[in-house]
Amino acid sequence: MNEPEALTRTFEALPPTSGRSFAQTWWGQAWLKALQDTALDGEQLKKGRRHAREGAVGAVSVRPGRITAVVRDRDGTAYRSDVLFQELDEQDWERFLDVATDSAGHIAALLDRDMPPHLVEDAAAAGVELLPGIGDLEPECTCDAWDHCPHTAALCYQVARLLDQDPFVLLLMRGRGERRVLDELQLRSVARANPPATDRADEEQAAAVVRADETFAAAGILPPLPAPPPLPDEPGAPPSLDTGTDAAGGPDAAALEFLAADAAARAHRMLAQALAPGRAGQPQEHVLTRDEDAVRMAASVPGPVIAARLAAGTDRTRADLDLAVRAWRYGGAAGLAVLEEDFVPDDDQVSRAESALAAAWAAEPDRPRLRPAGPARWTVVGTGEQLRLGRDGNWWPFRKERGAWAPAGPASPDPAEALAGSSGEGA
């Protein structure tokens, strides 16, 4: 089953414009005509056009029944402006989809980001008004105007530019997103092209039996799978969610943008691994815990605000999170475990570790003096260095920094090599 479609689209603020009308398409012009017929004060519309041309309208959020943006006056004062638009009910949508399916040209035009006049006319004949009319664009603004003010007018002018680019914006305002509309049009088209079989045909089909050995034998003559798609050069850019004002009690837009960018980067990396030669049959990655994933995200340099939230969410101080990030960069989840877990090796592991330490510097006259500092830790006497044994048998170098033991380099199965790789600096 498909995931539910998000019913809010946010468009980045459009740049200033001059010397051109706001709507080039006939449906965009119809949108502006509804605004002009609805507003009682033409002077407010003129100010709104000027605001829109000067780029005073922020990111525009479009969802069923409502469009929203922050609009700034010339003195910098910001106002949240909304325009409400009546949604279609279920019966209206059924009639519209039936009308759209009646002509293949209607569907082809929509896919080409075009709104054919005949589709709008046919829908109107069926009792479904797609485009707004007089009084259909209801304004709301924090400037407390009761009619269209310069801010809601500016928002409508900018939306006309969005409608020019994509008529599905209009359908979203009417209540349904692009994916759902196209999916339902496809279902209706398939149903019309393949009417239900007769009862006799159903009986004949039910009586047909395919032997299991015949099905198995057919596997050898099936065509090969197509080649996998090429890997994109980089992850896709996340959407802009900043509308210029924080929703009361709502999620943090900056945090959501960071999570979206992080998810895109992980998906790109996983796809690259899946498409790499020889990946078939390779073991799956370690599934990160919530705490490990928070450190992983902090290692991507998300900025001080989000880093502080990650620290608080994992009950760490910022200094503790910095150490965890350093461990992650040296060795991922295994490096983090060596930093924060108290690993207690069994007798066999201790015996192998002591043998490895004895053999590591056997040929060197000035071997370091090691003193046990815990079940799986050995401190180099007279220095601020330490070796720790991981659960996988690897050795990890640490260095004393401001009274705390900090990861100092990558792991190695050879304790001498691990200690030699100790940098004493952050990764």
Describe the protein.
The protein contains 16 helices and ten strands. By secondary structure, it is an alpha+beta fold. The strands form two sheets. The chain has a five-stranded antiparallel β-sheet. It has a five-stranded antiparallel β-sheet with strand order 6-7-8-9-10. Strand 7 (377-380) and strand 8 (385-389) form a beta hairpin. The two termini are 43 Å apart.
* Share in helix: 40-55%
Individual helix count: 16
Q: What is the spatial order of strands in the main beta sheet?
A: 1-2-3-4-5
- Element order, helices and strands? EHHEEEHHHEHHHHHHHHHHEEEEEH
Beta strands, count: 10
Average of per-residue pLDDT values:
84
Q: What does the radius of gyration come to?
A: 32 Å
Major beta sheet, specifics?
5 strands, antiparallel
Q: Tell me which oligomeric state these chains represent.
A: single chain
Strand content: 5-15%
Global geometry: elongated
Structural class: alpha+beta
From the N-terminal CA to the C-terminal CA, the straight-line distance is 43 Å
Unreliable spans are none
